[in-house]
Specification:
Blueprint (H helix, E strand, L loop, with lengths): L1 H13 L7 H19 L4 H16 L17 H10 L2 H13 L3 H5 L3 H7 L2 H12 L4 H8 L6 H10 L6 H13 L1 H12 L2 H4 L11 H18 L4 H16 L3 H24 L4 H4 L2 H31 L18 H13 L6 H25 L4
Helix pairs in contact: 2-3, 3-11, 3-16, 4-16, 5-10, 5-15, 5-16, 7-18, 7-20, 8-9, 8-18, 9-10, 10-11, 10-20, 11-18, 12-18, 12-19, 14-15, 15-16, 19-20
Length: 383
């Protein structure tokens, strides 16, 4: 009987109940809340479901993220090996290839002024950088945090890994992806605050047709120009444009379909679960996380406002032919930010169609955020 009692006691103590802290239970509740947002309200479910589930797993079974050097047998946890692909910047770069294969740069080519709106929306990144410095983060940590202002999860992970800020990669990634998911909630009040109803009703003219040759040359020219000026952007901008060249060339349909479908979804699963698994209670529940989340929200709001204000300037310069709402799409959340511009414009005038006009600044913002990340890498001498 003593043997049976001892065995049952050992089995009981092997359950997670005896090993979890209050922080683990809190993070399990947060993971369930994220799953609710993703499934019930469809807030970026392709990203939020794997992130939330990774968060759930690591707080129930922490050893799923056990580092190989800390393991008795030298074998790390499953999600640790997924996470190594994040640290090495492999998964974020592959995400960019998939995004390129799904993106139509036609609106940006047809209206090059969209580049300016995309650049203006990056103001939030630099606002977050100086805010993080003020809150006591070192310069590299501040740079990694600041990319949240572009609402670009892959670039946030890429830069945090390159700058060696893996200790705060989890909070940065979760904040960036959370704000990407909450674009329809965060942006509309800011857009209405900085624009008048008359401005929101402005109808923009039809974009000019873009030739196939222009679409083929665009990714090649952008890669040459941007990567010659900032070689550190090559992993992100290069793969973004490679994916787009697959799409626009029309001669590698199998590669286009693979990059935009099968490969993209496999990478999202690996990236999402590994990012979620960095949010253990020990790593996540601290004051730095609250600072990062707060800075991310402020940066995102600043970026949105800066894009709109520059849109108002373009409206004046074009004698009322530019709707300032499209400036808010300059953040990198593709295509959610463009859809929000369309939605807010349609609320003012149901016959107003801004989606294609907003896609120009939206895709410009993707390039702009990658350039900002490359600039930080160049400043810190990281390649």
């Amino acid at each position: 009987m003593e043997y049976i009692g001892s065995t049952l006691s050992n089995l009981l103590h092997q359950t997670a109940f005896f090993n979890l802290t209050w922080g683990n239970y809190l993070m399990i509740a947060v993971a369930c809340f994220f799953l609710y947002l993703a499934i019930r309200w469809e807030f970026e479910p392709l990203l939020l479901v794997p992130i939330a589930f990774g968060m759930l797993l690591v707080n129930i079974y922490p050893d799923i993220m056990l580092h190989a050097e800390d393991a008795a047998n030298g074998a790390g946890g499953l999600l640790y090996y997924f996470y190594k692909l994040d640290e090495l910047a492999i998964l974020p770069s592959l995400i960019f290839m998939g995004v390129g294969a799904m993106t139509d740069f036609g609106p940006l080519i047809a209206n090059p002024k969209s580049f300016l709106l995309g650049a203006a929306a990056q103001f939030g990144i630099f606002a977050a950088y100086f805010g993080a410095i003020w809150l006591g983060f070192n310069d590299k940590a501040a740079a990694a945090i600041s990319i949240i202002g572009g609402a670009d999860g892959p670039t946030s992970i890429f830069l945090a890994g390159k700058l060696g800020q893996t200790a705060i990669l989890g909070p940065i990634a979760v904040a960036a992806y959370s704000y990407m998911s909450l674009v329809p909630v965060i942006q509309p009040p800011i857009m209405k605050l900085f624009t008048t109803e008359k401005e929101r009703k402005i109808k923009m003219g039809q974009l000019r047709p873009v030739t196939k040759l222009e679409k083929i040359l665009f990714p090649i020219i952008v890669t040459i120009v941007v990567c010659l000026i900032l070689p550190t952007t090559a992993p992100l901008v290069g793969l973004l444009m490679l994916g787009n060249l697959f799409k626009e060339s029309g001669v590698v349909r199998q590669l286009t379909e693979t990059a935009s479908n099968a490969m993209m979804y496999i990478v999202v699963i690996l990236l999402g679960t590994s990012v979620g698994a960095t949010t253990s209670a020990e790593a996540f529940l601290n004051m730095d996380t609250l600072k990062i989340v707060g800075l991310g929200l402020i940066a995102f709001a600043f970026g949105t406002a800066a894009g709109i204000l520059f849109g108002k300037l373009l409206c004046v310069m074009t004698h009322g032919k530019t709707n300032p709402l499209i400036g808010s799409a300059g953040v990198s959340a593709v295509p959610m930010a463009a859809r929000v511009s369309q939605k807010v414009g349609a609320e003012a005038d149901p016959t107003n169609f801004l989606l294609m006009h907003a896609m120009g600044p939206n895709v410009a913002g993707v390039i702009g955020t990658a350039v900002a990340a490359g600039t930080f890498m160049a400043i810190f001498g990281v390649f």
